[in-house]
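haha ok so turns out i had the wrong file open the whole time. this is the CORRECT one, sorry everyone. sequence first:
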Amino acid sequence: MSDGRAGTAAPATETATPPDAAGWTWREASGVTLIAVVAAVIGTWPLVAHPFSRLMAPVGPGDPYLNLWILGWDLRTLTETPVAWLTGRVFDANIFFPAERTLAYSDHLLLQSLAVWPLYAITRNLTVCYNALLFGSVAGCVLAMYAFVRAVTGSRAGALVAGVAWGLMPFHFAHLLHLQLQALYFLPLAFLFLHRVMAGRRRRDAAWLGVMAALSAVSSVYWGVIGTVALVLGAATLAVGVGRWRSAVIARRLLQAFAVGALLIAPVMWPYWQVQRREGFTRNLYEASQHEAKPISYLRVPPGNLLYGRTGWLRPPAASPANPAKHEGPEQELFPGFVLLALAGYGAWKGWRSDARPFVLTMGAVALGGFVLSLGPDGVRVLYAACHRFIFGFQAVRAPARFGVLVGFGLAGLAALGVREWGGRRSSGERTSWPYPLAFVLLVGLEFINVPLPSVPAPPRSTPAGAWLRAAPQPGAVLYLPLSSDLENTPAMVASLEHGRPIANGYSGQRPAFFMGLVDTLNRLPAADALWTLRDLNVRFVVASEALATGLAPGPLVERARFDDAIIYEVVWTPALEAAIPRPELPPPPVPGALPFAVSERSVYRIVWLTGGSMSVAAGTATFTADVSTHHFAVDVETAPWVARFFEARDRFESWTDDQLLPLRQEQHLREGRRVIDRTTRFDHVSRTVTTGDGPSLPLPSGGRDGLTAFFFARTLPMVPGYRTRFPVTEGGRSYLVDLDVQQIEAVSVNGKPVEAFRVVPRFESAGNARQRGIQATLWLSRDAQRIPLRFDIEAPFGAFRIELERRDAR
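then structure:
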């Protein structure tokens, strides 16, 4: 291999020529490809020994199975109905039945699926395609980084070290759970064309810059956001470094690149925009702070790291009550390598004093920007909050720690300069001495290597239950029991690829609003309410791991097949069964009395966060309004400025009712930072159904109310100590039974004055996840005909709050 004179950045002249990868010989290309393949073999060992039988992931159920299902769904659709890729119907995946656009609840992996489709067409083996993507990602990162650094610095030796570092850095192996995050091969290529645009200002380079940026965004939403931030930083600093920051031609080329990229990603982003409007696929600053990096994260490696992980040298201490592991786990394993750091420091020092200064400035800015943003909201809060508010897509970032990948990118580029300067600047005709670049490659690889990679047995390609469902002539959706609210659904998702039927189960980065209501209800099979829900959803088959207690009398669950690990029931309703199994009804709630105001009411409450002991902090306001003439009720909630620093909310909930305070329509208007949701829920008390947005119609108990109308309804009931009643509430897709208990009369402080009030305790019963902690609440109503809510004390999983009356206007 040989080093050419640096082409680091074009001089600030109009005649500058772009950095180029021209001059590659067949020998160089084949040699670099061989090194990339060898690096991938070693870095992913024992993948090549068990590509068909082992899934290279630390666990099966969970995110690896989710990505396996996504990959399988894409490949199955591409093989059987390729036109769905063109029409966008591929996004109507078969989970969370009957929801639509469910593929857009996570990264879609369409680009990756297209890459491995020929392998799938030959083998029809999903596991080998998954493993091939992991293997190809490592090799592709080596090659892409080599091409970028080779073209920009002119150093083959430096490019080799940078490529191996980029392909084997710990981030890859810390995120074996996340196949989509392995797609880091487009970022170096985007930077290659960014440098070419700055140097040559050619339209074709601008077009290729847009293509590479778009491919990065299509490969993963994270790399779309993080790559865009990196390219903006890189473009700004590189333009300054080469003296072209005021160039109109450069500005036009960058706008051209943006237009090309936007045009390419628009068809793929459209389903995500639809889901965003319907489900609110955003993360607030508080959520982001739970997955941010700390400076110490850059001295953490995956547990399988050969040199530092298994020895425990760069592993965190074991979690304990005195040392809770809040900032531990894969997101925190961002070690860039001591060798890479040393080479990068040397390269920055030497490069700053040479024609490589623009490259040093660019790579340094990208690395610094990645480091600062990886610290999340608790780093430079003003900067992160501004990005969160104004940069499109930034709100989808759940784990700011992933910005740390830009630190590795910048250091790899600077390390290439260090390798080049270490070996001395040689003319293009001189040969480079092999020992020193190979020594650096081995040292970098030694620090980064994780062998053997963890793996799990591949899921079966076919199961008796899956084959039976594939062959069954009756169309219809499937429910797998038990129905989980979380990752336990992923084995059923993978199994569903065999038959391709819609399934009620699902797990993803998002879930439809109605799903938790289904979890509550369907796990009660064969209870009558669950059976009727199956009928309403048009679910045809139930696959259970154990026999269901269907009883002696005939029912709609008819056993069709029995295997060692599964029993398949068909749901068959007849008019006789519908008459024999009436819909279950709760005891009707009491008839509401008159509202304790004649025309309208407006009450303003201050929300206080109880921090423990006697400490309390103002957290926001809640304003309740009611109008008797229009049967309209509303509540507006706004967070205090200090709370808005990590969770900003300006939410409005409103309901329209009949004269019995039964809701007819509820609207939610959520404005939580960049999260905007407008959702309508309709209540049909004749057919006893409730429908949220575009979701299915679910059972509505007799007298069922939403939370807001239930609040006003409770104020119309008799208030005497010892009075108890029960009534149903449907909220957020889930059904609750509220047990209202009027306990006693006691004094409560209102604006510093004692006021006699009824102490009322509502208890909420739900058939939801047993692990979910319920809400405990106490309410004080004034001891007069107006029954004014004076104070609420609420203890919930997310904290304890007190809501106190500030002022009230009624007429």
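Confidence is low (pLDDT under 50) at residues 1-19, 426-430, 768-773.
again sry for the mixup
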